[in-house]
Every structure is written in structure tokens, then in C-alpha cells.
Amino acid sequence: MEAIKTMTIEEATERLRALGMKMSPSKLRNGIQQGVYPFGDAVMMDKHPSFEIYTVLFEAWVEKRLWKVLELASVSTNKSNTNREEQT
Question: Strands of 49-54's sheet, edge to edge?
Fold first, then answer.
């Protein structure tokens, strides 16, 4: 049986920063609690929530966003090239 791999808030924050996102641990915690970042869960303990960030879901979320960024960049580049061709 495989283990469910998780990462800490700090690890996820660093990975997102390395990808160019402006991220802090508190922003990530709040986003998970609000459902903005679907790759983690928050469980309320005695006084503070405990966070689980699932590595597989995190990687899938990142990959989906990277494809969107590349797709948007491609569309933008194609529009720029089309505009330049029309001007000549």
C-alpha cells in the first residue's frame, strides 16, 4: 500500500514562490480554509487548525495553472504576430 504524501505549509509556500507566486504561509493557510486552494485540508484542533497539503493534488493544481499560463502566453503571442502581419 502506498503512503499518502503530504507537504508542510512552509514547503508548499516555498514551491509556490519558486514558481513566481507571491505567497506567504498565512495566505496559503487562509486560502486552504476558504477553499481557494483545493490541494489541502484544514482540521480544527483544540485552538488552531492543522493543515494537510496533499502532494499529488498540489502538483496537479500547479501543472494545470502552468498550462493555463502557457496557453494564455501562446494566445497573446499569436495575437501580437497577427497584428504585426496586418500592419505590414
Answer: 6-7, 49-54, 40-44
Name residues whose C-beta falls within 8 Å of residue 73's C-beta, 6 or more positions apart in sequence: none
- Count of other CB atoms within 10 angstroms of residue 65: 13
Q: What is the mean pLDDT of the chain?
A: 88
Is the CB of residue 58 less than 8 Å from the CB of residue 16?
Answer: no
pLDDT digits 0-9 by tens, 43-77: 999 999 999 999 999 999 999 988 877 777 777 66
Q: List the domain boundaries for the chain.
A: 6-87
For 41: left if phi > 0, alpha if psi spans -120 to 50, otherwise beta; the answer is: beta
Residue with cell 484544514: 42
